Amino acid sequence: MPTSHRGETANRMDSKSCTEKASSAITPPARRATRPTIRSWLNQWRSPWRAAIIPEVTTENTSTTTATSPAAAAGTWTLGDLTVNRIGLGAMRLPQTGAAFHPDAPPRDRDQAIRVLRRAVELGVNHIDTAAFYFSATRSANELINRALAPYRDDLVVVTKVGPGRDPSGAWIAHAGPEQLRGQVEENLRQLGRDHLDVVNLRILGDAPVAERFGVLADLRKQGLIRHLGLSNIRPHHLEEAQAIAPVVCVQNPFGLGTATAEQGELLRVCGEQGIAFVPFYAIAGAGRERGAGGQEPEALQALARAHGVSTAQLRIAWTLHQGPHVLAIPGTGDPAHLEANVAAAGLRLSPAELDALDAAHRADTR
Ligand SMILES: NC(=O)c1ccc[n+]([C@@H]2O[C@H](COP(=O)([O-])OP(=O)(O)OC[C@H]3O[C@@H](n4cnc5c(N)ncnc54)[C@H](OP(=O)(O)O)[C@@H]3O)[C@@H](O)[C@H]2O)c1
To answer: pTM of the prediction?
Structure first.
């Protein structure tokens, strides 16, 4: 196995961990020194509403690792045995500008996409979310990741997902059945240039049962093609169904300020209770979904962004990260300036009053 590919025993950690720190604004790395325990972090920001969704996290789950990069400013979380900084990068925006999956979306400049990926890693991002079906006419997210980052650093965790598929023209095809999943996993391996995948999420469509397909992925895991398994776009009952077959290290679901349903809030809470990472998508894009960001923002969000001298996108990321230490952000961008801003948002700390104001806006918009 090439040295660039992580061995099964490398980076092993015994338990879930999360590290945190406190500051009052976006803090340059050099000023990061002390960090409270997770319990004090939670107590500091716990509001009645947040108390309902953030589980108690025992101090056994904390780590004293010192933050060394901008992406570490919000602490770390461990996916199975793979420790990642809580601010990551979503690769769905890399292959094109404008709406994802749109047949007329202009392919993104290749050098710009590669620059974004390399800069992300320089900033300490070590959690990249991708999929083989993230492609435009002439760009593939997996190919860009391979080109930019191989040979891969040992601490880089690339998470991919299977289930959905697109034909070469880009048209969506039916979600993969059990017999197609191995092929989808192998497609990711080929495109990424890996011999195993760090984490594979099974993405569900609607209320489809997961057991048979999750079982296929569990077998591939036993065979060493996959290190850890997750779920995406699920409803609460899917989690239990999958856990009867194999451990689930993450749940990737839509969740953003003003756009999360009660069911998504419930999943966020359950994941926290069980030590499973909750990885929201559309945390910035919100109702814009594949089309991307740019909708009208709630007044409370705009006012607070002005007060902090940050963008509403940064504030959305910060609010997301404040939902619990098990929440990992994967803001999607192919824009170098947006990448810098998004990573810097990991250092943005919100006071209880500020969180209450954003929570109120969240509840008002999701009513
Ligand atoms: N499991 C699933 O079913 C699923 C579904 C969707 C997405 N995902 C994953 O989740 C990731 C995140 O979702 P997403 O990319 O759709 O949405 P997102 O992160 O919520 O928002 C991305 C949109 O916001 C813009 N943006 C990013 N940073 C910005 C900033 N600092 N200021 C202003 N605009 C900014 C992006 O445009 P620019 O490119 O111009 O920055 C893009 O339009 C995806 O990349 C993908 O990896 C998973």
So the answer is: 0.86
